[in-house]
Amino acid sequence: MVSSRRKCSKGLFGASALMKLHNPVKVLQKELLQELPTLVNSMSDSVPFSLISLIYMAVSVATAITTTDLVSKSVAVESHVGGTTIRVGGVAKGSGMIHPSMATS
């Protein structure tokens, strides 16, 4: 199955075939880094994050970094420690595009 991808300065990143992205866009690392302050400043502390929103964001990020991966890899957990809610999320990239010889299949 062939999928559309966005070209990134570090390789192919982007949408799976299910997302039907037909207009690939090259994203340069320099331009991305220049826009990070704007992105961070646009985030609001007034909007509470839920476990569902963390899962959604993790899945979105995990999908965005898929290249030749067959599935995205993400996790989000929430716990309470000493009366404080702790939320942790993570995503992982398959090894195939990091170094093709590292792939297991």
In short:
The chain is α+β, with helices and mostly antiparallel strands. Helix content is 26%, strand content 23%.
Overview features:
about 100 residues, alpha+beta, two-stranded antiparallel sheet, 2 helices, 4 strands, flat, disordered N terminus, Arg_biosynth_ArgJ
Write a structural description.
There is one protein chain. This protein is of the alpha+beta class. It folds into 2 domains: 1-43, no CATH class; 48-105, no CATH class. 26% of the residues lie in helices and 23% in strands. It is built from 2 helices and 4 strands; from the N terminus they run ββααββ. The protein has helices spanning 29-41, 51-64; strands at residues 6-8, 11-13, 73-81, 84-92. The strands form 2 sheets. It has a two-stranded antiparallel sheet. A two-stranded antiparallel sheet has the order 3-4. Strand 3 (73-81) and strand 4 (84-92) form a beta hairpin. It starts with 5 loop residues before the first strand and ends in a 13-residue tail after the last strand. The model is unreliable at 1-22 (pLDDT under 50). One of its GO terms (molecular function) is L-glutamate N-acetyltransferase activity, acting on acetyl-L-ornithine as donor.
